[in-house]
Amino acid sequence: MKNKKVFAVAVIVVLSVIGLISFKFLNNIKHPFNAKTGKIPVFVHKGDSLFNVISDLNTKGVIKNEYLIKFYIKNKELDTNIKPGKYLISNDVSIKEFVEILNEGKMEKNSMRITIPEGYDIERIANIMDESGIISKNEFLKSCKEYTIPSFIKAEKDVRYALEGYLFPDTYEFEKGITGEKILDIMLSRFEKVIEDIGKEENKKIDNLQELITVASIIEKEARVDEDRAKIASVFYNRLNKGMKLQVDATVLYALEDHRRLSLKDLKVESPYNTYTIKGLPPGPICSPGIACIKAALNPENTDFIYYVLQDKKKHYFTNNYKEFLKAKSLYKKQIK
């Protein structure tokens, strides 16, 4: 009887040990990484084998058991063909999932792609940055205010943001954790390249960049169709040459920092951006213009137009006659409603 009890205890002990070993084995298979961080960087260089990568991770102390992992891979005949690249692996993946990620080259990008639409001002660009998780709105705006102004920008004292209009609207890919200063470096560099290319393409020297981009930014806000851009540019220059006020709603909206329908009271707001009350151009651009509007500002159509009015929610009606303008304004305003 005593021998039977001893034997039973021995069996229990052996089974417990086997169970413990099995548990540890399964745990190592299901959760091979022991890193505390959520993501583990894994570098696969050209010519690296899967087992070399595992040995490297073992040396760095981020996997639990190198030999069990290799044994499992061989026993299960997992695909050991892996693709070079920089990976960010979640620390809760299984061995099978880990190998599949390297097999398929599922690299997790440490960057984000965003598109800045034409006609967005700095405040709206800051919103995109914030919503994308690249940088908070407040941090981005702070960077805009503190940034060392490039020599090609001759900002007036009354501008809201010295960089307004020069953050070129385009699709960018920014690294996560990038600073506001670096974002601005990239966007301003893109702007410089665009201006350089336009100058070469048009075979023109751009003397007054501040005026050009200011006009282009207003065109960007006013024009609805491509063929109206150069005509609208001609209206602006014709009015400026005649000493007339520009009287552009878009500049008032910028002054108000709002996008509502304007009232007569709004047109009287005191602001250096209110072209209903000031003569000449506002102190700076009111948004980031695209290439087409910059070209239109550089190459206005040769007209005598000094008035325009929105005709059908897209195209504008142009004239040099004030009575015709009032008549068209009354007619098209009723049609658009």
Automatic annotation (TrEMBL):
CDD domains: MltG_like (cd08010). It is an enzyme of class 4 (lyase). It is found in: Cell membrane. It comes from the Bacteria. Keywords: Cell membrane, Cell wall biogenesis/degradation, Lyase, Membrane, Transmembrane, Transmembrane helix. Belongs to the transglycosylase MltG family. PANTHER family: ENDOLYTIC MUREIN TRANSGLYCOSYLASE. This is Endolytic murein transglycosylase.
